[in-house]
Amino acid sequence: MRTIEMGNPVYEYTVNITDIQEYGVSFEELMTGKIQLSSEGARFDVHFSGKASGPKLSGTVTGVDYLHIRADGRFQLDMHAEIITQDGSKTSLKADGIAIPRKDSSISDLRENVTLFTSSKDFTWVNTIRVWGVGTVDLATKAIYIAGYSV
Question: Could you tell me the pTM of the whole model?
Answer without folding.
Answer: 0.92
